[in-house]
């Protein structure tokens, strides 16, 4: 079974950091690009960041560029999102998603269930 | 990176067809054939319904179809069923390793 399981969410104060993880199983992880997508409460989907199969290419939404860093460990079948200088507007459900191509941008065919990040003092 | 433009709502009666539009620019929807459509029921993760403008993943009913003309992509749901009631989002590749989503359309089956 193809599966993505996110972890690492929680309550954090503004200005602090948090690291999200996504454990992949059921497919050849290093064949595909991966993404983080978030959904603020009651709002739509927002692409946050993507990374190619070999980490050679990365992309970030303007809203997180310079604060968030995406990475992957193909040996561990894992995707990560390091989130620094967190703001209230980063409060959201964060989804990990698999691209159906090895490079960023094909589209997301598998999604996890998400991990919730709440930024509040 | 501006969000793609979708109508906030759409509706149709069971058995009817409904089309949802997704308008971007020449640097996203119009420039690439990497438009996807996602269905999201309340409290659930999004589900891929269409990729590469008009391709359907296995398991997605052929009542769902996609197309594109210029900077506007469209999702058509034919033979509407009650379970089609959900939020629908489009997405597109948008140059230099970026993706962009639409604002979402709430589809109501009357």
Summarize this structure briefly.
Chain A has 121 residues and is an all-beta fold. Chain A is built from no helices and eleven strands.
Summary keywords:
heterodimer; A: 121 residues; mainly beta; seven-stranded mixed sheet; 11 strands; 0% helix; globular; B: 110 residues; six-stranded mixed sheet; three-stranded antiparallel sheet
Describe this structure in words.
The complex is a heterodimer of chains A (121) and B (110). Chain A is an all-beta fold and 121 residues long. Chain A is 0% helix and 50% strand. Chain A is built from no helices and eleven strands. In chain A, strands 2, 4, 5, 6, 9, 10 and 11 form a seven-stranded mixed beta sheet that branches. In chain A, strands 1-3-8-7 form a four-stranded antiparallel beta sheet, with no helix packed on it. In chain A, a hairpin with a 4-residue loop joins β7 (68-73) and β8. The radius of gyration of chain A is 13 Å and the shape is globular. The model of chain A has no long low-confidence stretch (mean pLDDT 96). In chain B, the strands form two sheets. In chain B, strands 1, 3, 4, 7, 8 and 9 form a six-stranded mixed beta sheet that branches. The mean pLDDT of chain B is 95. Chain B has strands at residues 9-12, 18-23, 35-40, 47-50, 64-69, 72-77, 86-93, 99-101, 105-109. The termini of chain B are far apart. Helices cover 0% and strands 44% of the residues of chain B. Chain B is mainly β and 110 residues long. In chain B, a hairpin with a 6-residue loop joins β3 and β4.
């Amino acid at each position: 079974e193809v599966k993505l399981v996110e972890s690492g969410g929680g309550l954090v104060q503004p200005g602090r950091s948090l690291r999200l993880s996504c454990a992949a199983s059921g497919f050849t992880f290093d064949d595909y690009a991966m993404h983080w997508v978030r959904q603020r409460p009651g709002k739509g989907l927002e692409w946050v960041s993507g990374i190619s199969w070999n980490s050679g290419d990365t992309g970030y939404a303007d809203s997180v560029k310079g604060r968030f860093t995406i990475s992957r460990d193909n040996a561990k079948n894992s995707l990560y999102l390091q989130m620094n200088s967190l703001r209230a507007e980063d409060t959201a459900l964060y989804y990990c998603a698999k691209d159906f191509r090895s490079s960023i941008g094909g589209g997301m065919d598998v999604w996890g269930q998400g991990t919730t990040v709440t930024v509040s003092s | 990176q501006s969000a793609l433009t979708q109508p906030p709502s759409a509706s149709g009666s069971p058995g009817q067809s409904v089309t949802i539009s997704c308008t971007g620019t020449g640097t996203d929807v119009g420039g690439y054939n990497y438009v996807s459509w996602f269905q999201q029921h309340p409290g659930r993760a999004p589900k891929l319904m269409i990729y590469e403008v008009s391709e359907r993943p296995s398991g997605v009913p052929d009542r769902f179809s996609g197309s594109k003309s210029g900077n506007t992509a469209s999702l058509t749901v034919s033979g509407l069923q009650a379970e089609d009631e959900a939020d629908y989002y489009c997405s597109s590749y948008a140059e230099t390793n970026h993706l962009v989503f639409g604002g979402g359309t709430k589809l109501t089956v009357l």
